[in-house]
Amino acid sequence: MSECASTACGCSAGPIIQPTTQAPATTGSAQAVYRIENMDCPTEEALIRGKLVGLAGVVGLEFNLMQRTLAVRHELPSLFPVEQALTAIGMQAVRMDQASTGQTTKLSITKMDCPTEETLIRNKLGTMAGVADLDFNLMQRTLSVRHADQVLPDVLAALQALGFEAQVLDTAEAASPSASLVTTPTNWWPLGISFVTASAAEAVYWLHNGNHWSVVVLALVAVFTGGLSTYKKGWIALKNRNLNMNALMSIAVTGAMLIGHWPEAAMVMVLFALAEVIEAKSLDRARNAIRGLLDLTPEQATVQQADGTWREVGAKQIAIGSRVRVKPGERIALDGEVLEGRSAVNQAPITGESLPVEKSPGDPVFAGTINESGSFEYRVTAVASNSTLARIIHAVEAAQGSRAPTQRFVDQFARWYTPIVFGVAIAVALLPPLFMGAAWLDWIYRALVLLVVACPCALVISTPVSIVSGLAAAARHGILIKGGVYLEEGRKLRWLALDKTGTITHGKPAQTDFVTWGNALAANSRSIAASLAARSDHPVSKAVAQAAQTDGVALLDVAEFSALPGRGVQGQINGETYHLGNQRMLEALGQCTPELEQRIAALETMGKTVVMLVSAKGVHALFAVADTIKESSRSAIAELHALGINTMMLTGDNPHTAQAIAAQAGIDSAQGNLLPDDKLREVELLAIKGKVGMVGDGINDAPALARADIGFAMGAAGTDTAIETADVALMDDNLGKIPTFVRLSRATAQVLMQNIVLALGIKAVFLVLTFTGQATMWMAVFADMGASLLVVGNGLRLLRK
Ligand SMILES: Nc1ncnc2c1ncn2[C@@H]1O[C@H](COP(=O)(O)OP(=O)(O)OP(=O)(O)O)[C@@H](O)[C@H]1O
Ligand SMILES: [Zn+2]
Asked: Where does this one sit in the cell (predicted)?
């Protein structure tokens, strides 16, 4: 349950889910808003309703399945009964309106980097009064604690008692990813001494053909130089009734010394300490794969001063609105908008696409990208800590914090595995000698080997490393995945629903036909239409307005302008109401004739979109606009089909055009005339058949995007919201990133599976060998270390995908 809470916590950082801020309906009642991660279908709503409605003190429930939130209006002194009831039916509820329940403090704990330490801390703090929620991020070594106002000192003291030095991060530090890379400091000296003395103990033992006082001394030196921190950590764990690997190793090594296996105890300790170091180093590599991206931004930039001169200034000090100059070959330091000059910029660090993009005044530029040819000046639009790149890194780091399904499974497994094997070890040490007259020392030794085998670290470590590597690899391709869940689910996609305008097509249609209708004057109807169109941001309107501007058509004053989503626009010109819109609008106005319909259909089957200018007097003109499909769309659709993913186009445009464009792009099927809710309904229908993804860019796609199992946002680099709201944000508008994402997801799943099989396989082999008496302790440690290294190495392989 606790993991799930932390997952939800990761999500709750996103701005998608806003706590409901309605005033309570009944006076005297309060409202609590929960985000319930695993509540997304009506049967769950029914379950929760059934459980909570009967609860004394609960006055009202408000469900939002789309946002997975539940607002509880209540008259309770404490929400404990509500939370308990939710937990009892398996709902992972996280309080959203945190402000009322204390505060969240983010702590940096440098020594916390492995799941066993997490368990230790969780057990200690999880039961502490005043602590509401814990959110671990082992990769960043941070812990966010939600707690009552006064308990922070207690929290810090508790951590201290566990041997962890915690540092409170202030809000600014917590929000912006720091540029510095994290590395685990290693103290090589004790390890070296330990290794030498352990080897010497082995050698002396061999020379003497048995134990000798010098063997004992050498072994003790080896154990205490190499294993002191293991012992310390193991002792803390045992005191907290926790069997982590440090505890297991401490017991095993101590046991081995007690039964006189001195050189082996020494060797086991050295190997274990070494394995720890190597593991920590590999984890650093995975961690820094993402941080490394931030190193791409230069520390300095050339900024214009108040007196007009140019000066080198530290990037962090540069304010929004400053004017910055970039030389050819230089990296861009901050996000901005080009003011003067032209150049080609390599945007690979953001979009994963190394083909240079032409930049001229008005175009956006991004921190971390490389200016290739010309020099130009730009106006800064975001401070260094809020650049697109910084936000990407922040999002990926947050994504690591949330647990992917496999990790949840593995953690759950490890929780049972270790105590069970520990129990078996005790049985092995006691039962055969007691009841079958077997030799004590022999079976105690076997039990100690089992303790080493009981260590689940290879298994536990393999999942986060693989997921982080997958996330980092995706980020390098310009694919921002907002949680390990999506990386794991991507391989299961059966359907991809695609928006048309701006997703498959360029989204920049041009007017192709202008047809007068009835007895209107051509010039007059063009200027009326253009005047209305100029007021709208819709691509179809833009095309009409653009064509009129090119032809020098004069614009008129528009009053009472309004947009009619999915239909068109309307407004008053010279006291008369005009509409500019599609056939749906025409029908609503009752102005459709068979003759007109025929004309429209003829244009639409050519893949054009038609809008009409209509007033009370009738239809005045037809405007046809045509959009072109992106070259990348065709090949992306073909790749998706090759991956076994079906495609369906969902568009607000008319069915004829939809068919024509779908045919050009090679899409399986197309649905036209859809309003936002219709798109949502279509996605829901597809969801019955399997995992469904939806890719779109417009506002009219938002409900469908949110409902899809994976919502992809296109062209996220320029926009503020797309990065935050989508499940997967594609930094440019190349559909080809979706097959790349699916392949990466499949590769990740494969690595995860290989790692689990590998880690468990080695354990299984040793379990058998221990019972047959063929396994020695140091072989078990060696195998455990080997397994850890193999799974970590295998996970890091994803970084190169
Ligand atoms: N502001 C507008 N100006 C002109 N026509 C409009 C406007 N808004 C909607 N329309 C008409 O309604 C149709 C549907 O619009 P909608 O915005 O739902 O979808 P779309 O942008 O065409 O396609 P997609 O769903 O693929 O993004 C448009 O094709 C156009 O004919
Ligand atoms: Zn281990």
From this structure: Cell membrane; Membrane
CA of 244 from ligand 2 middle (Å) equals 10
Architecture of domain 28-93: 2-Layer Sandwich (3.30)
Q: Which two tokens stand for residue 696?
A: 């779109």
Considering the entire predicted model, what is its pTM? 0.75
- Domain extents in the chain: 28-93, 101-166, 298-385, 508-624
Q: pLDDT tens, 675-709?
A: 888 999 999 999 999 999 999 876 678 888 889 99
ipTM for the predicted complex comes to 0.96
The verdict on whether 701 is a catalytic residue reads no
Report the top-level CATH class of 298-385: mainly beta
Q: Check if 696 has its Cβ closer than 6 Å to any atom of ligand 1.
A: no
Residue nearest to atom 17 of ligand 1 (CA): 566
Q: What is the mean pLDDT of the chain?
A: 83
Encode 139-157: b = buried (16+ Cβ within 10 Å), e = exposed. bbbbbbbbbeeebbebbbe
What does the alpha-carbon distance between residue 356 and residue 337 come to, in Å, rounded to a whole number? 17
- For residue range 564-616, list pLDDT tens digits in order: 888 999 999 988 999 999 999 998 888 888 899 999 999 999 989 999 999 98
Q: Cβ(652) to ligand 1 under 6 A?
A: yes
- Asked if 641 and 669 count as a contact pair (C-beta separation under 8 A), the reply is no
Phi first, then psi: give them for residue 507, nearest 5 degrees.
Answer: 80, 15
> What gap in Å lies between CA 30 and CA 14, rounded to an integer?
24
Task: Kindly give the interhelix angle for 213-239 and 115-126, rounded to the nearest 10 degrees.
Answer: 40
The CA distances from residue 371 to 330, 360, 393, 483, 732, in Å, are 6, 12, 21, 31, 18
